[in-house]
Write a structure and sequence with these properties.
Two copies of one chain form a homodimer. By secondary structure, the first copy, chain A, is α/β, with parallel strands linked by helices. The first copy, chain A, has two domains: 11-230 and 407-412, Aldehyde Dehydrogenase, Chain A, domain 1 (3-Layer(aba) Sandwich); 236-389, Aldehyde Dehydrogenase, Chain A, domain 2, CATH 3.40.309. Chain A has 16 helices and 17 strands. Chain A has a seven-stranded parallel β-sheet with strand order 10-9-11-8-7-12-13, sandwiched between helices. In chain A, a hairpin with a 7-residue loop joins β14 and β15. Chain A is globular.
Chain lengths: 465, 465
């Protein structure tokens, strides 16, 4: 197989090549993109030994970092691609491939007048810059989502996974090239300076997706004019309403806190309605203790839960702290309104959940809490692209524009308007003649978006030259 | 009627009040928002004399500016709200009101498992900052679109229209207050310093929409961390393909250039296929001359069109110049590919049109030109929210994220995910038990989004306190 270049040694040049690759990829057929994903899955399996050798090197160096206290044990575990993780990673490529083609979908069709037909069609965003944590499976996931959605991508992974990422990117690029996907659609950046350089390529890069620590994401947001999709904070709440089923409330609160304690959709603050507080704490305190969750509570929580021997006193800072640890802040509130105001004020507009048997209260909470995901009687941990059925996610956005919440393939597309006429001028409609617009909704897709969703026949490719 | 405050004397405080108003407005019923739009239309008619008196003052001062050469005659005309313009402005409020409610629409519904149902619902973006040119009717249009879509708005109009804008904003705010719309949803900024102050309110403002000159929009984009939706340039092209019907090509080219010569979707560059150039110019040159359009052409254009007496020589700068005047740059190209590359390189990704009778060529152009609006046998001047049937537009975006092209009500919404469960935890699905997700598509809308699209009954408002 031909050697395809994936490592960048000049970010500006790479970004410009990515734009060119993106323009070609945007008009590739769904069949070609799917065939490339099949080849990628097969190539990963074929290159398994080579990939796992590189990964073993990264893990060995990571273990030394753990010894020196420069890396935590959970992060070392995320670095390891061996065993079932490898198979799951390949399976994920096939699961992205199995999703419906997100491109050239007719989002709306309008007849402006007889013979003047307007279509809105989904198209790729273009060139993405994605910076992700030290999980090599993330590289495979992001590359698959970008290829399926027709986007070129500049990738920068955590340096602890450098060897693994390089082999993975090379395998992916080489496999895709064998299916006619243009070179340059995937590029691996190597250094932090590369990331800095990428942030100023606003002419060539359309969207930056940063994943990682709060401080890191904030740094990215503050240092680029390129739109950024992601989240800095994940300060999520569970509210136990007066009409809560206490058993459900305990289950939802515990799962929200500990099912993925270092994740962005883990709960950090528990709000408890005053009229249910004693009953709730009577069940919950022992359960939190059993799961080694330390509670930081306000005065009323301490009183209702059994004193400072059980609950440490919370300070104002607790309501704004994303612990990402076995710690939970707890506050007793007097009303649904107070809970909603607390969440809208201190929260990060990520994911918040109410536990209640009162449907009207639930609806009010769902409507008024200003967050990307708002849940009723369910753990905040459900806020995830895979769990939501999006296939996979490139990230979770707390911004209000474009994608919000877990972002999958659809969030990697934009649209364009296509208008077919027969020589019509605006003067026909707004000059001396003033023909009326009909603006009738058409129940058809764009005629050229048939079959796989993309044109690709020789006849359609040619002509006009 | 109660005096409602619309003028800001502290932009930070106004922005924070706007956020509070936006949270209330987001849960207002469609019926309340529509009733407010009815009251606004009626109030504008009732206050007609007062509004037109203020406008006469602005026009009188504008006329003095024209005398001193500080304002152009076309801009003075846009300032004048009298006569049919006033009626059309009121009619526009009623046309926005007649649009379907853009809020609480179920965009997707998925059953993650029995009793665990996920809905994606449209909601307002939140707080918008809109800066617009000296057209008082724009204030009415923007305010109507924001109210219909449940967004609070900070507005700053051109200073030449200050007196008119103040009366209009006061009339609108007072009328809306009479329908239970929260105070503070509309605020009028007064100075350029106010605009500068607004650009740093990223905590309270979700989106800036600037309308105006290239330099002004670029200044806004370069000086805020708030997402900006709009366009700096409108460098639009018409390509006359080898298979063009010459009559259509002349009509489309002329209309694209002169139907709205100062607008962003007017054509600035004409590309002509070499094999049709002589035939096309034989018809087009006299037509452009009759319409007083000056042509700047490359050497081949000059040769095909009859010499430098007819066509002035173009320089490299012409291909990047948005004239907004009766000037058109013209270039002869050898192929569809060359035309597409020219447009993707020099264009502003706004609106471009091909004239051809060859359907396959048209489809190739529509797919490969990387612009928000791409047309076939139709004038570039159709790129407009009203013409597209969107009701009205807040602006046209050349960005690739969120809204693209003409942006109407839908572009002023985002979405949130709502999940209804019965106490489910992620541990049930991904712990020791590992229940499968079903991820079935539900064919229902969110049960609480019935009728007007928003809940509003007393029972639903109460509860839980």
């Amino acid at each position: 197989m031909a050697a395809v270049r994936v490592l960048s040694d000049d970010v500006g040049a790479s970004a410009r090549s990515s734009r060119e690759a993106a323009r070609q990829l945007a008009t590739s057929s769904a069949a070609d993109r799917d065939a490339a994903l099949d080849r990628i899955a097969a190539a990963l399996e074929a290159d398994r030994d080579q990939i796992l050798q590189a990964n073993a090197l990264d893990v060995e160096q990571g273990a030394a970092l753990v010894t020196r206290g420069e890396l935590t044990q959970p992060l070392l575990q995320r670095l390891d691609l061996g065993g079932a993780k490898f198979d799951a990673t390949v399976e994920m490529v096939r699961s992205v491939r199995a999703q419906p083609d997100p491109l050239w979908r007719t989002q709306s069709a309008t007849e402006l007048d007889t013979g003047l037909r307007l279509y809105r069609l989904s198209v790729p965003i273009g060139v993405l810059g994605v910076i992700f944590e030290s999980r090599p499976d993330a590289l495979v996931q992001i590359a698959s989502l970008c290829l399926k959605s027709g986007n070129a991508v500049l990738l920068k992974g955590g340096r602890e996974a450098a060897a693994t990422n390089q082999v993975l990117a090379q395998t992916i690029a080489t496999a895709a090239a064998g299916s006619g996907i243009p070179d340059g659609w995937i590029t691996l950046l190597q250094t932090r300076d590369d990331v800095r350089a990428m942030l100023s390529e606003e002419e060539s890069i359309d969207l930056i997706i940063p994943r990682g620590s709060n401080e890191f994401v904030r740094y990215i947001m503050d240092n680029t004019k390129i739109p950024v999709m992601g989240h800095a904070d994940g300060l999520c709440h569970v509210f136990v309403d007066v009409d809560a089923d206490v058993g459900k409330a305990v289950r939802v609160a515990v799962d929200s806190k500990i099912q993925g304690v270092t994740t962005c959709c883990a709960a950090e603050t528990l709000l408890v309605h005053a009229q249910v507080a004693e009953r709730f704490f009577a069940s919950a305190i022992s359960e939190f203790a059993r799961k080694n969750v330390v509670l930081h509570g306000d005065e009323r929580t301490i009183a209702a839960a059994g004193g400072t021997g059980v609950v440490a006193p919370a300070t104002e800072a607790d309501w704004s702290t994303e612990y990402l640890d076995y710690v939970l802040s707890v506050k007793v509130v007097d009303s649904l309104k107070e809970a909603i105001e607390h969440i809208n004020h201190y929260g990060s507009h990520h994911t918040d959940s109410i536990v209640t048997e009162n449907a009207a209260t639930a609806v009010d909470f769902l409507r008024r809490v200003d967050s990307a995901s708002v849940f009723h009687n369910a753990s905040t941990r459900f806020a995830d692209g895979f769990r939501f059925g999006l296939g996979a996610e490139v990230g979770i956005s707390t911004g209000r524009l474009h994608g919000r919440g877990p972002v999958g393939l659809e969030g990697l597309t934009t649209y364009k308007y296509l208008l077919h006429g027969d020589g019509q001028t605006v003067d026909d409609y707004e000059g001396t003649i003033r023909k009326p617009y009909s603006h009738g909704s058409l129940d058809t897709e764009w005629p050229a978006a048939k079959g796989s969703g993309v044109l690709g026949s020789k006849e359609e490719e040619g002509g006009g030259a």
